Task: structure prediction
Amino acid sequence: MTRPALSFRTALLASAALFAAPAALSFAAVPAMAQQAPAAQPPAPRSFDIPAQPLASAIAAYGRQAGVQVSLRAEDATNRTSAAVSGTLTADAALTRLLEGTGLTAATATDGTVTLIPLPSAPAGTAVLAPLSMSGAAARPGDASPWEPTEGYTARRVATASKTDAPLIRTPQSVSVITRDQIDAQKADSVVEALRYTPGVVGEPFGIDNRYDWTIIRGFSQAETGLYRDGLQLRSTGYASWRQEPYGAERIEVLRGPASVLYGQGDVGGLVNTISKRPMDGQKQEVQVTVGSHNLVQESFDIGGRADDKGQVLFRVVGLRRDADTQVDYVRDERTYFAPSLTLKSPDDDTHLTLLASYQHDSTGSATNFLPAAGTVRPGATGMIPTSFFTGDPNFDTYDKTQSSVGYEFDHRFNDTFSFRQNARYSHLTLTYAALYGSGLDSSDATRTTLSRGSLVADPTTDSFAVDTQGRAEFKTGEIGHDLLVGVDVQRNDFKTRTGFGSGPSLSLSNPVYGLSVTRPAYGTDDEVTQVQTGLYLQDQIALTDRLTVVAGGRHDWISTVTDNHLTSRESSANDSAFTGKLGLVYEFPVGIAPYVSYSESFRPTLESNKAGIAFAPEEGRQYEAGVKFQPPGHDSQVTLAVFDLTKSNVVTTHPTDSTDKVQTGEIRAQGFEASAVGKVTEEFSVIGSFTVLDMEKTRSNNGDQGKAPTGVPKTTATLWGDYTVRSGPLAGFGLGAGVRYTGPTWGNNDNTLRLDSSWLADAALHYDITENARFALNASNVFDETVLAQCSSDSACYYGQDRVVKATLGYRW
Result:
């Protein structure tokens, strides 16, 4: 029977009602917070190095170095030059010195942006010390560029949604930013752990898994196309899947909904983009040692800064080494990570070249065991199977992966209107993988205490090259402002895949015996796939007024795929093309409330074909979204509410009259509501919260599951994290953090007859600044050691979540 779908109109009205309460509370809380806030502290000095030069380029350099958005009319910049500014100064003092003799002064808006205007009766060249009306809000940490460090949990600018540094409140689509401070506070040791408090995201869909960064966003898997680093796709296929080290990330941005207009092929749910740490002038150096559960010992370092006196050459080196066991017997967790980078800047700060490289070696195993529902969802003949149970064999299982990459980011600003940017990266992945896995209870054992096992070997290799070239123009046509982006990106992926499946010896669930002789299966797949994607795109962020912004974009892609089957010596090819578009509108009220609506599209090629050998067309996706964003003026906090309607079509399904063939008539729909809040309640207390309701249905399918929901997708999730840090007094530097994560029930098989219960998990943290440079932190996830099932994909494939993990970290910064 088809489940009733959530009405999009009803959800929209519900979101408005739900918005009213927090908005009212926020307005009521602003005066209270103002009363409770401690006395304002003087602005923190920064390192400035701006040579004397034309005023327009000097102001651009100041904005980047100060983390302040500054506006200057072109006519006011004509024939004006700036004074040189060098040294450690506050933002106010630096701008005062920069404007000396220009006849301009600065005015600050309530949102912290700065506008330069002429002084009355002060012609250019007059020696006038420009008075400033800048407030503390102008240097809010969250206003920093999305490629630079953000202090705290709140980021006000994002790179992923527009490929520019657009303000988050002017972005008509749902975006979450996990800052470096949040990653450190929660001590996330993987990208998927860092996403635990993000709305609309299932970050660990298969429970404990040290192999992949697989996620589910708004109900759709992003395993192959949804992972990015620095705006370039990390394309995965099968077992050749990338996993990133979060210690090397400055932030992680999650874009929910289709993103093909800017990024090309991808699933309808969204994407995860990791922004790498890169050289910064004046950055602090850091070393850390972490010990913890499962014999964890980890050392890490982050060193960088100036390589010359003028700051035109900057470097950074990030490294990590981890040795640990896991909660699963015989499965290790070992990693070596090394990421050097170098930035070269022109004297006028208009040209930057950053070189980025990374090396990562992982040695682990299959902690994600395929266990039967009897013994995990419900007691089996041997009771409940322990979370430490290993379905493989230490003499056979191995997982050894090496990832490396080298690339660059180049940008040049010609003037106040035109700029150019190009990103490129070459990536290489090799994997040696062998495993025994559970395939259900052994039907020949009447006691139901023996697990049947299959065997797997895989030796994939991936070579990827991606380059994205962008031209940007910021200008006005009359009173209408434009931020126009025109780009072309090309990526080539070469996948070499050798995979073999076989049978393995059965394993007793009550008395497992390991060290057995296992026959290595022969390769049943030996393919080499070359896929080339070329895309042309255009996007315009149009400021119709000071408050109303329209974002429109379109893209056309061409994709060529060639498959060489080495087992049959046959070659096949497919050529696909697709046009995708997006349109959004957002209006920002002076009080910081910004309602928005948007429409966006996606496409994703499928390598499948029908029985006649005719290749299928790409899957298509579309999303309607409406929401409200709220950023209280003068506060480092933000609230986002959104309702959405997603549909993925052209899904491959069984032929209605020939079960040995396939057709492309399947469709999946997702509708839902998301709420998120992040920021400071007071200077001492910061919070992160999220709430998601998701209704999914396979609306068209010939597989016998039409009207059913996909497996592993909870209908409701909710999270809340808080951190309180004492800022003054005898306990100054001491802090406590605590969080709770709720996951609603999920279906564990395609016909929706196996139901997994909901779960509540608690996390906690304690940290203390021993000295100005040294910090001790103690973190615990799943504090009460609850046993949870992350997902069942069938009655014979269930996966445990992470048990309690405790980590102690001692760090030193200087």
User: Anything to note?
Assistant: The helical segments are 8-36, 55-66, 74-77, 91-98, 180-186, 191-194, 260-263.
